[in-house]
Give the backbone structure.
Amino acid sequence: MYTLVREAESEKIISSPREYQTELFERAKQKNIIAVLDTGTGKTLIAALLLRHTVEQELEDRNAGKPPRISFFLVDKVALVHQQYEVLKANLDYPVQRFHGDLRSATFTLDFWQQKTEESMVIVCTAEILLSCLHHSFIKMERINLLIFDEAHHTKKNHPYARIIKDFYASLEEGEQRRPRILGMTASPVDAKTDITTAAAKLEGLLHSEIATVGDISVFAKASINRPIEDLIEYSMPPEPFETPLWQKLHNLVGHNEVLRRLFTYSRACTAEMGRWCADRVWKMCLTEQEALKLEAKTERNFTSGKVQFPIAALDAERLAVREAYQVVANYSLPSPERNPFHLSNKVEALIGALREHFNPAKDKCIIFVEQRLTAMLLTDLVKQESMKLSDIKAGMLLGTGSDSGDMGMTLKDQFVTMHQFRNGDLNCIFATSVGEEGIDIPDCNMIIRFDLCKTMIQYIQSRGRARRKDSKFFHMVEFTNHGQLQSVFDNEDSEARLRKFYNTLSEDRLLTGGDFKIDYFLSKEKSYRTYTVPSTGAKLTYKSSLTILANFVSTLPRPLDAIYTPDYIVRNVGREFECEVLLPDTSPIKSAIGRRATNKQVAKCSAAFEMCLQLKKKKYLDDYLQSTFTKKLPSMRNAQLAISSKKRAEYHMRTKPEIWDSRGIPERLFVTILKTSSPEALERPSRPLAILTRHPLPRIAKFPLFFGHQRTSDVECVPLPCALQTALEEIERINQFTLRIFDDVFSKEYRSDPEKMPYFFAPLKYAHNFDFSNITDEIRTVIDWECLTMLQNTARYLELEDQTDETFKDRFVIDPHDGSRKFYTVRRRQDLKPTDPELPGLPRKQGGKKAIREAPKDIWNFSISLWSKTRSKLTVRHDLPVIEAEYIPLRRNLLDELDRREDVQLKCYLVFETLKLSALPVDIVAMAYNLPAIVYKLETNLIVLEACKSLALDIRPDLALEAMTKDSDNTEEHSEEQINIQRGMGKNYERLEFLGDSFLKMSTTIALFSQIPDSNEFQYHVDRMLLICNKNLFNNALNLKLEESIRSKGFNRRIWYPDGLELLRGKQNTSIMGRKGTGRGVHTLADKSIADVCEALIGASYLTTYEQGSFDLAIQAVTKFVNHPNHKMMKHEDYYAAYKIPEWQSAEPTAVQREVARQIEEKLGYKFTYPRLLRSAFMHPSYGTIYERIPNYQRLEFLGDSLLDMVCVDFLFHRYPSADPQWLTEHKMAMVSNQFLGCLCVSLGLQTHMLSMTGGLQREIAEYAAAITEARKAAEEEAESANLGRASYARNFWVEVQKPPKALPDIVESYIGALFVDSKFDYSEVQRFFDAHMRPYFEDMHIYDTFASRHPVTFLANMLQLHFHCADWRLMIQEIAVEGAPLDHAQVLCGVLIHGQVREHATAASGRYAKIAAAKKIMGTLQNMSVEEYKRKYGCGCSPEEAQASDPLAHATAV
């Protein structure tokens, strides 16, 4: 601690640039000043802040009934009108107008100016415009509230700046009428040719202002403004100028023509300055056919305007001479330039050498300043010549506007295009005249070369200021041994040094001293400043030491390697006192603190630092020795994410049967649930519904499909009847016997008759599948086929076959007592066949395998007997047995799996009944009974998950509950990986619901934290939210709730669907899979993340259950259950707002400015804010501080709005694309919530104009982005118009290729959404309305963002075929195939790419999803380099673009 105190006494705490900018802003509010700051140090920021302050004060004045006034931003060049206008328009939420000389005819009316001043708050114009208006009294000086003079050093002599002040400002008596405030801006107030003190005094006197500058320029070394390293490029003394043969020939023709005089002078001088080749090249560039016509016209004008009248023949001769000169130049063969003294001067050679040595085209940007436009044009052209071998240098030029003979300029549009290209990297080297030295904004570069030396110190300072990047270089090109040139360089440097020295001689009230000036002196005068002593260590915090302690703390914050973080202090005047707010970088856990007021700014600054240190100590970010603990806390904060690995797995108990089956005993009543199919014809055999009878009522579950092969499918409906069936013991016995007969005959399982142990019973029904069972209310008994039950009870186990008629053998069910896998349906008796006739080929083998049929004849007799060879040999062939034609019933393993195909065997066969038996079960009952394994599995699965939901007190829709708890592979949670050990036929897995639930979980916990913890900061919110929503928390709570037992991770298994608790007398026990993957022993292996994912999926299922009612309550209850934390105890949506206490700053009386912003937002976006101060908070950038309006910055609202935006986008995608997989959804959501799109949206809604910021350079960045995005949209509209689609049909993805926006733009969109939600009393429908009105139109077709989202192979292939090749006839077809030698459940999936009916490529994988990906990658390799014509020819594609456009890519190939 002693060390820190000692450092505090001796070390100077260097402030940040923001402190000086805010001090300058505060001073500009109080008095007229000339802000003298280097290029790029924030003069425009101060101007924008002062304009906003002035306009806001104007609104208050108008509200108070005072006459309206207007602000003027005056510039010296027409180009600057447009540039400064764009900056202000993009950053001010008040009307801004612009005018310059080109509009002179329109501006000279009183009505025009009265209208413009009424419409506008700010006008940007050239000084001549305002001077003219003042002369005509269109505008009066007393109606102006602010005059900003850009490049104020021009205020001298008769410059319009000076005339405005002398003729109109000075004449206003300060006491009688309101003078406008004046802000002058310049990098250097005086030229070096005059005495600095005298010139500065003159400038101050003229502008009625005081110079304000930074006494310590080193403050900007810590900002983004870097002073370049200066060096010389030397070249040899040039030769004397001479005339080239081309010059001489042209001079003989038109040398006496005054129009060409300047061009001849330049070309001759060029031989020495740039070389022979350049001297001739200038004629090629300036005497083109178009320019020759202009020269003829100028020649004629000169002739006719002269005092002496010449004959027409002389004029014709002159015009003819110009045409001949053009022909001479056109016919002149100019060779390619070579790097030798004959072609190029040593100066040009030195320039090229310097570029080769110092300029890296891949990462550098260079500006080369020249004196004349023709020089810039020639050098740009020279660099582009192939023989120069400078192809990596992408050169452009930046010239002033206007045009003269032989000296062409650029239009304003051309200037802006050049700067845009330079900014985007399309150009990396610009040759610029003085237009690039001051005013016009040139994007940051790192290399400046003065091809022609600076003539003034101002030129020197301003051109050097263009090199703003770190490690920049600034070169002066000087002639070797030319001491005059070298001295001029030194003179400029010396003049600047004297200017800096002059600044330091200014009185204290002229210098921006920051909060450290004479700090010890002011602290000694302060009697009541506080101290704090840490009780445990005695470490002492004082006002002075708090500055050092805070600076040390900030130095420990995470930051980029090349950045230096410092605290920012904002000091403002409050009456005769000062108040200070300290702002820390974004990575700080606490962002701001306001100190107590003090009588001077130095003590106010210390007070703010002291207050911040106290907060850091309270939150334990400073330890008991007042040293930072932040680096130590970071790991634990990162661990707050508590991510759990999807690789970590454990075995858990798995429920295989629902608890409802646990109720046993002889029932007195049973509840009936109808089991029927919606498409019974799919069975290809008559069938009738069955009933399952249970001791407790079953819930109604969703329909589910069964797949019977060959495209035959039918949904199964489970219809519970409303009333119970009262049952007698005798009826129970009959129903029990029927159930046991089903298990025995159909499934070869004989159980001991024990009705009290049966978990459920089956019963036949009287009615067909299409009967409306929902109308059955109290006559439940009538639906059961009691006659059938009685018949079966009174019938022997097998039908008697001796002496039976042929009818007996029709449509019967045949069983093989010796081989349970062999079942048949009889067709008819075949009188034409006998037992020894050959059997049909292709019939399935019997269970005995090869040994059972060894050497047995392949006849009907031997096929019908499944006994082993030894036993069969003891039987005598009976030739008198009737032969029955039958149909073999193939074994289909899993009717729930679409890809599971029945055995491909011969079905038709012939039987004799030596050992086979006829079952008494009616065939239509048997046909339906074969579906029972899949139906019971599905029913039990539903019951298990619904029981789990009931235990959670969540009444989730059954189909959604099942989807949420279905895990159909070992790594379902790894969306992007190929799925391992896929469990087929389980239906939808939890992935999509998890995607939805994850977003709702994020939103609900965010709202809870926001509403309950109003004083927290964004950093702490993130940490607190992570503790709630992290997988580790969800996982632990799920285990406490025993949720893992009910997760469905095993697909259908035909061996374990049978009821448990019964004694098996005959048939296979479930031993073949005991212990394999836990299926038979009631355990399953789950990844920790899978269990956490199921929690999120259940939240998603809860959300969808009440989606149609527009209620969040069930999903909120699910969140509360799974996060299990005091910070989220809500049970319904209203609880969130009930927990929110409206802060005083939100409900305080708004100012006129705040009400005006709310009015503008209502006008633009249609929502009227109840609390305008809340809206103001949404636009308060963190750099602005709360000190001015006592309103917090937007970061808390941004945190809230981010989660709301995420939810509304996820909800849109989820419902719009019901078949898209989570990976596709996630990738495309990224487009919707990306900073790029939100920046575009911000500008399109004009939200950025309302933002309050004190970050230097941000205003210009926003203006540049606004111009770029506006231009991109305009181009998209023009493209749509040219395609005859209408401008409104422009491609909505125009923003994708535009430069990235400043981060503040997406931030304020999110913060606005947060403010909207809070102001509407947490009404989510307002967020939905905002999305539907302003965001959804961009995303009606999400496929245009496939490339932005990711190059997912399937979606990319879909778009390649549809959008590029215009093909509508293609498809990805999948089919399961058996793998030779592999187990039955280890099939592969084959995916074929069909184009116009033929398979063009194929691939196999363990699942359809990954087979599609593999096939898509293979076919893309073929298509990638194929032209559209080749594609059409190769694949016979005649599809039209309209047909392709009308097709849906997801219908062809969903990436699932």
Q: What stands out?
A: The chain has 52 helices and 36 strands.
